[in-house]
Amino acid sequence: MNAPVPPAEALRRSLAELLDGLPPRQAATAVERLIANYRGDTPTHTPILRDRADVIAYAAYRMPATFEAVHTALEALAAAVPDWTPRSHTDVGGGTGAATWAVTATWPGERGVTVLDWAEPALALGREIAAANPALTGARWRRARIGADLSLDDTDLVTVSYVLNELSERDRAALVDAAAAAAPAVVIVEAGTPAGYARVIEARDRLVRAGLHIAAPCPHSAACPIEAGKDWCHFSARVTRSSLHRQVKGGSLPYEDEKFSYVVATRLPARPAPSRIVRRPQIRKGQVLLDLCEADERLARTTVTKRHGDLYKAARDADWGDAWPPPAPPA
Ligand SMILES: C[S@@+](CC[C@H](N)C(=O)[O-])C[C@H]1O[C@@H](n2cnc3c(N)ncnc32)[C@H](O)[C@@H]1O
Quick one: a GO cellular component term (predicted)? Predict the structure, then answer.
């Protein structure tokens, strides 16, 4: 029997097949229009994804990156709550369902999955792509508008990825409150920009006020030590570039780095990282410099040298976004 295809690969293949069905210039033109749209003032009144070509372009261009970013956030949740597996998942503003794929990559197997979005073409394409993932064949794709009256059915996990950006302040608050009321675990991902980080912090504060605690990336649930306007907390995920990326963006690199900000909040007993590496580690001769967000609510730089033995080896392997020190391997 053939080994099952990992979700990231199954998603890539499925998107490549869809693109094959479009005239080459059409997808690139749709992506260029979408990029212009997202750069400008994102409309909050009408769906941006209007038809199938828009949605294929969006999916092919953005889903692999969204998948990697959400997957990173979910792995941080799984590390903080290791004995837990969500039995149900609701993806709000889920579009073509990238986050549902990421959930199946973190916790394989079937569960009750619901994707809510107001854009019917996105839901339809999401359902079509999900046919390539056995864990998603039972997913429900429902049309729903995020607004002040939003209420969500109880579920184990709510994901909200790259959605807050498209909502008014009032609707962002309604969504975060509804997620906090519906689920013991909420994962929010936004672009890794100062504005994306600001929306994540706004949501983080609201989730803490609703009684959840922070499982990742922060080592604590107190206020973020970053001074607003001076810096922003974000991470990076490596994404294999598709031929569509090369067509739209040019360049020859086989990958690009998706920058994202995120927060994972939960009511479950969680063990957040002792501290988190918040910049790319700087490797010097005989030493590694790590910028950490620490459990005592401070940002601090630590230097790990050869004299630290195994810890030095771990520091050389450490990556931006990792917990520090790394968790001990299972006995
Ligand atoms: C940038 S896309 C992200 C889609 C998906 N979560 C992902 O990460 O790939 C934003 C999604 O939010 C949906 N959306 C925006 N405003 C909405 C609203 N008021 N009600 C429901 N869905 C909304 C859009 O239709 C779109 O699918």
Answer: small ribosomal subunit
For the Cβ of 93 lying below 6 angstroms from any atom of ligand 1, the answer is yes
Rounded to whole angstroms, how far apart are CA atoms 84 and 110? 15
List the chain domain ranges. 7-266, 275-324
Q: Is 59 in the pocket of ligand 1 (CB under 6 A)?
A: no
Nearest CA to ligand 1 atom 9: 98
Residue 131, class by beta-carbon neighbours within 10 Å (0-12 exposed, 13-18 middle, 19+ buried)? exposed
Q: What is the pTM of this model?
A: 0.94
Q: What is the pLDDT of residue 253?
A: 81
Residue 100's pLDDT is what?
98
Which segments in the chain show pLDDT lower than 50?
none
Whole-angstrom Cα distance, residue 64 to residue 279?
A: 23
pLDDT for the residue 331: 64
Residue 49 CB less than 6 A away from ligand 1: yes
Q: Which atom of ligand 1 is nearest to the CA of 94?
A: 6
What pLDDT score does 295 carry? 96
Assigned CATH topology for domain 7-266: Rossmann fold (3.40.50)
